[in-house]
TrEMBL record:
GO biological process terms, semicolon-separated: dTDP-rhamnose biosynthetic process; polysaccharide biosynthetic process
Assigned GO CC terms: cytosol
Function: Catalyzes the epimerization of the C3' and C5'positions of dTDP-6-deoxy-D-xylo-4-hexulose, forming dTDP-6-deoxy-L-lyxo-4-hexulose.
Organism from which the protein derives: Cesiribacter andamanensis AMV16
TM regions (residue ranges): none
Oligomer status and interactors: Homodimer.
Protein name: dTDP-4-dehydrorhamnose 3,5-epimerase
Gene name for this UniProt entry: rfbC
Chemical reaction(s) catalysed: dTDP-4-dehydro-6-deoxy-alpha-D-glucose = dTDP-4-dehydro-beta-L-rhamnose
Pathways per UniProt: Carbohydrate biosynthesis; dTDP-L-rhamnose biosynthesis
Family (UniProt): Belongs to the dTDP-4-dehydrorhamnose 3,5-epimerase family.
EC supergroup of this enzyme: isomerase
Active site: 61, 130
Length: 181
């Protein structure tokens, strides 16, 4: 397991050692001690899995305090463009994002601590799995519109398949205004 830093402090891309043999592959998708050595000390208490058809975009989602979640994300089958948006008001990279490809070949893990918005675009029919450090809390759910020009995320598609709920998410400006209230 090897971690690679990203331009945003706290966000990590983690490369597991994928062992191939005549039967297929094997890798440790979660190993507490090795992740701790890479600086990830979180206690994950919920695992989620979703299937998304090619062209589906989910996000950008987060949970507000006190139900904030760190996430450890990976693709079981398929390929996504996965995006983390820095929503930590005190961060020098507040409002900036980092995008990365997660797939079922490299099996890269994407770690985002509390304070990030998360979204992904399915580039193929995809099963995505992620660990979370807090339970789902519908009352604490927050989000930002995937296509907000201020975030300027290059999704590479003009009209992805987005849920009605996600189409109505606030803009980044509305989000920042809500912080100042
Ligand atoms: C997130 C979540 C949803 N649900 C339910 C609510 C709803 O009926 C159904 C689908 O929920 P959603 O439409 O919110 O699912 P989805 O759009 O996949 O939401 C997820 O998006 C990605 C980007 C994230 O980062 C996640 O934290 C989560 O917000 O599942 C749970 O039961 N537990 C959960 O933890």
């Amino acid at each position: 397991m090897r971690a690679s830093l990203t331009p945003i402090q706290g966000l990590l891309e983690i490369y597991p050692k994928v062992l191939q043999d005549a039967r297929g592959y094997f890798f440790e998708s979660y190993q507490h001690k090795k992740l701790k050595e890479l600086g990830i000390k979180d206690l994950f208490i919920q695992d989620n899995q979703s299937f998304s058809s090619k062209g589906v975009l989910r996000g950008i989602h987060f949970q507000n305090s006190p139900s904030q979640q760190s996430k450890l994300i990976r693709v079981i089958k398929g390929r996504v463009l996965d995006v983390a948006v820095d929503l930590r008001p005190d961060s020098p990279t507040f409002g900036r994002h980092h995008a990365t490809i997660l797939d079922d070949v490299e099996h890269k893990l994407f770690y985002m601590p509390e304070g990030f918005g998360h979204g992904f675009l399915a580039l193929e029919d995809t099963i995505l799995a992620y660990k979370c450090t807090d339970y789902w809390d519908p009352a604490a759910e927050g989000g930002i519109l995937w296509s907000d020009p201020e975030l300027a995320i290059d999704w590479g598609v003009a009209s992805p398949n987005v849920s009605e709920k996600d189409q109505k998410l606030p803009t980044f400006k509305e989000f920042t205004n809500s912080l100042n209230r």
